From TrEMBL:
Presence of keyword Repeat: yes
Entry keyword Transmembrane helix: no
Origin species: Paramuricea clavata (Red gorgonian)
Coiled-coil region(s): none
PROSITE patterns: TPR (PS50005)
Listed name of the protein: Nephrocystin-3
Entry superkingdom: Eukaryota
InterPro entries cross-referenced by the UniProt entry: TPR-like_helical_dom_sf, TPR_rpt
Keywords annotated in UniProt: Repeat, TPR repeat
Length: 460
């Protein structure tokens, strides 16, 4: 971060000189704004970066008009920054603007056109339009194969991007093939000890974990870690990410002691690099809390989850997916500690966030209604529990239809509540063990979260 700060100061110095020499409306001045924007993105100051890139594009439009390579570059940089701040609709518009210019200037078979197709694919992926994203990445790949052939860094990048999208589509076999393709290219180009090779091992490990081949996944992540330690040393963001991913796999394998050590390792690095108030630091606290939950050290887990929540509230505010994740985890821990009243408050927090972010008729809302219903059942508030499970059922019927495991789960819980309302006790409660549902839900949320930092967004 210190290097970026110095770089930013140098670029701002250069800008001031160029404004004095050439004035505001000059190609070199625009270039300075562009470079400042790139640096600000690396510093994760995306609002400032967006301002800088918009400054650059206004100058370029005045100087060159719409159909110019530099104007296209500015549209793409704006799109990348909008993607980072999760304004996907604007990002897609910006990238489509860039590609139209590049198609006019260069035609289909050109490196910049391929880059635009990839950027569009990244944004479509973030918008969960995976079919379109796959088409865009495959388009980029075909151009790169024509231009560069198989053994080229850009071709490897396209295979990796395709693999990421296939993972989101849950076509893990195809995803693994794509990532292994990318790895073979990286090994031919760069050898074992290279950042791209480490990134490909990392992607393969993520895919293997989704395929539940945990032993292979652990090997892949350890491979990535060894390369990153050689290249970057201990105190590096990618090294921390590898420790975290190893911790996740160790949790899958129920080696919780090792998982806790790995997550604590990642946390120490992130505290050195980013300090307390950073998304990655919060993620580490969350991962540590999850592992402590699995070890049934609920008191420690609650502290860890509350730590993560406080950071996320500062960074993102109330209405954010990561904040909801923290409330879920706190609710689960409170549930396990039999503090049902607090757990219910946490669950209701989650529901309000999910309804704002996803809408009432989303599977996440159904999961949350089920979670709340389980807590209400334990509190013997049968009428409310029934209403919660019936609401979950209606959403699941609309989304999945009758013949789906989630729908069956809702019917089971409704029957359970009805049994309890009739008799006051239910043998089926012991059979079903409501806490198993809550544990399963928390695990699903936790393991799904591994993809959040493993799939990198577009680079500038």
């Amino acid at each position: 971060m210190e290097d970026y700060k110095s770089a930013l100061e140098s670029h701002q110095h250069a800008l001031q000189i160029r404004i004095k020499l050439f004035g505001e409306v000059h190609a070199d001045t625009a270039k300075s704004y562009h470079v400042i924007g790139v640096t600000q993105s690396w510093m994760e100051d995306y609002k400032s970066a967006l301002d800088s890139h918009q400054h650059a594009i206004q100058i370029r439009l005045k100087l060159f008009g719409e159909v110019h390579a530099d104007t296209a570059e500015s549209y793409r940089s704006i799109g990348v920054t909008e993607n980072w701040i999760d304004d996907y609709k604007s990002a897609l518009d910006s990238h489509q603007h860039a590609i139209q210019i590049r198609l006019k200037l260069f035609g289909e078979v050109h490196a910049d056109t391929a880059e635009s197709y990839r950027s569009i694919g990244v944004t479509e992926n973030d918008m969960k339009d995976y079919t379109s994203a796959l088409e865009s990445h495959q388009h980029a790949l075909q151009i790169r194969l024509e231009l560069f052939g198989e053994v080229h860094a850009d071709t490897a990048e396209s295979y990796r991007s395709i693999g990421v999208t296939q993972s989101w589509m849950e076509d893990f076999k195809s995803a693994l093939d794509s990532h292994q393709h990318a790895l073979q290219i990286s090994l031919k180009l760069f050898g074992e000890d290279h950042a791209d090779t480490a990134e490909n091992y990392h992607s393969i490990g993520i895919t293997q974990s989704w395929m539940e081949d945990f032993k292979s996944a652990l090997d892949s992540h350890q491979n990535a870690l060894q390369i990153r330690l050689k290249l970057f040393g201990e105190d590096d963001a990618d090294t921390a990410e590898s420790y975290r991913n190893i911790g996740v796999i160790q949790s899958w394998m129920e080696d919780y002691k090792s998982a806790l050590e790995s997550h604590q390792h990642a946390l120490q690095i992130r505290l050195i690099l980013f300090g307390e108030d950073h998304a990655d630091t919060a993620q580490s606290y969350y991962s540590i809390g999850f592992t402590q939950d699995e070890m049934e050290d609920f008191k420690s887990a609650l502290k860890s989850h509350q730590h993560a929540l406080q950071i996320r509230l500062k960074l993102f505010g109330e209405d954010h997916a990561d904040t909801a994740q923290s409330y879920y985890s706190i609710g689960f821990t409170q549930y396990e500690m039999k503090d049902y009243k607090s757990a219910l408050v946490s669950g209701q927090h989650v529901l309000q966030i999910k309804k704002k972010l996803c809408g009432e008729g989303h599977s996440d809302a159904a999961d949350t209604y089920t979670f709340i219903g389980v807590i209400q059942l334990e509190m013997k508030d049968y009428k409310s529990a029934l209403a919660s499970h019936e609401r979950a059922l209606q959403i699941r019927l609309t989304l999945f239809g009758e013949n789906h495991p989630a729908t069956a789960e809702s019917y089971d819980y409704i029957q359970l509540v009805q049994d309890r309302m009739k008799t006051g006790v239910s043998i089926r409660l012991e059979q079903m063990k409501s806490s198993n549902f809550v544990k399963h839900l928390l695990r699903r949320i936790f393991y799904k979260s591994i993809t959040k930092h493993s799939i990198t967004k577009d680079s500038i």
